[in-house]
Amino acid sequence: MRRCAVQIALIIVAVLSCGNPLFAKRKDDLVVMINGDRFTGEIRKLEQGILYFKSGYMLQPVQLDWAQVDRLESQDQFFIALKNGKRYIGVIERTGGKEATGQALRLETQGKAIQIEALDVVAIQQREETFWSQLNGSIDYGLSYTSGNSALSSSLGGAVEYQRAKDLVRLTTSSQFDAQSRGPDTNRYTFDGQYFRQLSQRWLYGGLLDLLKSDQQELDLRTTFGGFFGRTIARTERTTFVIFGGGVFSREHYFPQAQRTTIGDNGEALVGANFYTFRFRVLDIRSSVLLYPSLSEPGRVRLNSDSNLHIELVKDFYWDFHLYENFDSRPPINAPRNDLGVTTGIGWKF
């Protein structure tokens, strides 16, 4: 079941990647800073107020403050996202200069030119990149040992994200193993997939697929899938906040218990929120909260909460602080209602 779900999610991502032809990226983009510094090479992307740029003589891309960019020119097409939720595909040119009353981004799209305030742009992404190079993600690992009771705890997590002009796919997975000499071993595995499709500047729709195995809650496997409509409440170059609601179906398989039905189906409503913010260039926070009021068993409510804090250590490496909770107000068997935990570790982003 888990392998099948992973394959389905990868197929969704692969299908989205085929929507547009991929071409070779030019290397003659021009960036001029307010202080007069000039760079010729390749515009990689703009995110969180930072423009990533690489020249042929650079070993690694440099990070440029978007607010300090005076001019920008390119003959390639890019995906552009604005604070108000609008998204475009086109050729970009940023104009400035000492005599300019304000910096603007000139966008040529669908045979017409559009003027955009440069600081209203929250993201720029290459259209010509290969599918694999458009993936953003992270991997982190943590390990702890306590000699008093010979307790060993190991955690492994990963996330990958693929975004186009109107589509976003995010996949995350985690595993945790806890062992001690004076108690039973426990395992916890998760797989979460979310797909968002932009309808308008603020409105969107999508679907989700969640898998959970938790020895703590005596849950062998819970599979949840469904759809939703949502709205972007806030979007800036550093912060995104989205709320959504819909309906899901879940199948639960608990560990066997005497005279208890351990397999059941459940129809549920869905209320959720995703929050992401980037601060101080070295810290980012991502949080997701999903609430499932049961329709099949009125009065039963499930809560799934997952939050990550990343603090940059050196380039592309970070310290990860992960807080998770799975709560069930009325489990169908005699099992703990709550599964709450904290993990820490070292991670790498790509």
Quick recap:
The chain is built from 1 helix and 21 strands. With 350 residues, the protein is mainly β.
Folded structure, characterized:
This protein has 350 residues and is mainly β. It folds into two domains: 229 residues, Porin (Beta Barrel); 107 residues, no CATH class. It is 5% helix and 66% strand. It is built from one helix and 21 strands. The strands form two sheets. A twelve-stranded antiparallel beta barrel has the order 10-11-12-13-14-15-16-17-18-19-20-21. Strands 1, 2, 3, 4, 5, 6, 7, 8 and 9 form a nine-stranded antiparallel beta sheet that branches. The longest helix has 16 residues. The chain is globular. The N terminus is likely disordered.
Write out key terms for the chains shown.
2 domains, twelve-stranded antiparallel barrel, 350 residues, disordered N terminus, nine-stranded antiparallel β-sheet, globular, mainly beta, 66% strand, 1 helix
Topology:
Blueprint: H1 2-17, E1 29-33, E2 38-47, E3 50-54, E4 62-65, E5 69-82, E6 87-95, E7 104-109, E8 112-117, E9 121-126, E10 136-146, E11 151-163, E12 167-180, E13 183-198, E14 203-214, E15 219-235, E16 239-254, E17 263-279, E18 283-293, E19 301-314, E20 317-328, E21 338-349
Antiparallel strand pairs: 1-2, 1-5, 2-3, 2-9, 3-4, 5-6, 5-9, 6-7, 7-8, 10-11, 10-21, 11-12, 12-13, 13-14, 14-15, 15-16, 16-17, 17-18, 18-19, 19-20, 20-21
